[in-house]
Write a structure and sequence with these properties.
It is built from 6 helices and 15 strands. The protein is an alpha/beta fold and 255 residues long. The strands form 2 sheets. It has a 10-stranded mixed β-sheet with strand order 5-4-3-2-6-7-8-15-10-13, sandwiched between helices. The longest helix is centred in the middle third of the chain and has 13 residues. The N and C termini lie far apart (40 Å).
């Protein structure tokens, strides 16, 4: 059994030095902790609709500051997508600031999140991908078909990249089978609730430590048992399964 360590982000301090972080903003309400993530990542990307969100919503988090100053301070490095959503004034603003804008109109078979993840994969050809974590904000909430598409991206890249979907209420990532996952929990903002949900196929055997209701070679499937409303009881949780599992934790963030 291989070991895989999944380091959990810390919004108020630096991420563990083992991780290289990159950020993607989607077209949904941005969490209030988005500015805290900005300085911790090495690349900041927006889908075209996410660029509108950044332009409109980030200044609202700093009501005492000039919106133009906030937009300049929190400008994306790259905007990538089919550009059907970005407003002309937003595109012009970020273009003048030096943001790279990539038109993917010719690709209508993948979502804008998928396009951004592909860019990051190819942007870092020499980086050991076990040290890379992609944080995606605005990924949860809103239309369920959009959420499902985002989860599909988790599944597509599960064995290649570590991607975490984030909202103000929860985080979501996908644990691949065949590993003993060691997950570091920051209980100052994570929990107490958490969950493990099989994706794509039932699990015939899942074992955990660090939870109030641990699993021991337990089968999980829709229509029988899935582990929802579980409780974090340790700073380290381990998960081992023969199936893909969605791992989610509750987030309680206080600015």
């Amino acid at each position: 059994m291989q070991h895989k360590t999944d380091y959990v982000l810390n919004y108020k301090k630096n991420i563990r030095s083992e991780s290289t972080l990159m950020l993607i903003l989607l077209n949904y309400h941005l969490p209030c902790f988005t500015p805290q993530l900005w300085g911790q990542v090495s690349l900041r990307m927006c889908t075209d609709g996410g660029a509108n969100r950044l332009y409109d919503e980030l200044p609202l988090l700093f009501p005492s500051d000039d919106p133009a100053d906030i937009r300049h301070k929190y400008k994306p490095d790259v905007i990538r997508g089919d550009l059907d959503s970005i407003r002309p004034n937003v595109k012009e603003c970020y273009s003048k600031m030096g943001t790279t804008i990539i038109d993917q109109t010719n690709d209508q078979e993948t979502t804008d999140l998928h396009k951004c993840v592909i860019y990051i994969r190819d942007f870092t050809p020499d980086l050991d991908k076990t040290h890379l974590k992609i944080l995606v904000v605005g990924a949860l909430g809103g239309r369920f078909d959009h959420e499902a598409a985002n989860i599909d991206v988790l599944h597509t890249f599960a064995n290649v990249l570590h991607i975490v979907l984030l909202s103000e209420e929860s985080s979501l990532t996908l644990l691949a089978p065949g590993y003993l996952h060691k997950i570091h929990i920051n209980r100052s903002f994570e929990g107490p609730h958490c969950g493990l949900i099989p994706l794509g196929a039932p699990s015939t055997s899942t074992t955990t430590t660090g939870l109030h209701w641990n699993l021991s070679d337990t089968p999980m499937a829709f229509g029988s048992l899935i582990s929802t409303c579980n409780i974090l009881e340790s700073d380290i949780v381990t998960v081992q399964s023969d199936a893909y599992l969605l791992w989610t934790t509750e987030i309680r963030f206080e600015p």
